[in-house]
SnoaL-like domain protein
Amino acid sequence: MGLSYPMMAGLIAITATVGSDQRMEADARATLETFHVKGNAKDLDGLMEYIHDDCIVSSANQDLIRGREAFRNMYARMLSAYTNINLSVDIVETRTVGEEVEIMWYTVGRRTNATTGVVENLRSANMALFKYDQAGKMRFYRVSNHPAEPATP
């Protein structure tokens, strides 16, 4: 007994969707990880390659950041405030939601305050939506980040 055409077409569609979701999630994870590498290198232009034109960022203790230029200005201030940045990504969850990929992660590491020379430990909880731009490049679209308490053993 074979599968009917409609049943086979449905299975092919499900397989294609799963493959597409996996590709989108892999692209989003690569975008996130490369973004952190560029940040550690204090490469502002490199960071901007991964920001969608319509990006919106919500961050603790500041107004919403809307658009690429506002994002550039925010990150330029942040990068100039630190001399040594060594942050990594601890991905908690990745899932595809329609045409977007949602990733929740912790950013953890250390950075050195440029003014005081004090080394600061950092841990922030983050959630972002990633989506492809018109050129087909995966970019940050919506971002929320907030300080998090250190994990307890």
About this structure: Residues 5-147 form a domain with the Nuclear Transport Factor 2; Chain: A, fold (CATH 3.10.450.50).
